[in-house]
Fold Regulatory protein TetR.
Amino acid sequence: METDKPLTPAAERILTVAGKLFYDNGIHAVGVDTIAAEAGVTKKTLYDRFGSKADLVALYLRRRDERWREHVRSFAGPRTTPAQKLLKVFDALADWLDTENTRGCAFVNAHAELPSPDHPGRQVITASKQWLLGYLRDLAADAGARNPVRLAEALLVLVEGATVAASLDVAPTAVATAKRVAKSLVDEATAA
């Protein structure tokens, strides 16, 4: 599917409806008939605009990834140091989970439902996680961490673990706890 050209209003509506249904109910639980009906279009329109359900899933994930990246970046103000930006990722996560993202990570959820490595959504999922790891690694390097790769990996594990624990309600303060641990790791990694 060509994703560089703007979507028609009907296609945007389909994508919005599909995204909500996929996240709330699961990708496999939602059929194209339901998406088309909820979006007020025909199944033919859905297929004309997206080609396949797999391509629709991939675009849903791509759009969600774009929103997540912008959300994370928005928490790092221009006067924020790289070390502070590393910790701001946890503030972004807390805010993200407090809004419309109560079922945890859409990418982890989708990964569980898309076992085929050939599914176009799998590449989007991998790219999203690689982006966050790279973002953390770059910030860690800018903060003067002795081993930016190791620090970034540790912080990624904290982000992912906090997301799961918070979404399952097993640790109501999971993100705050992860941020405290992250601060210790950042302080240790950047100490002179």
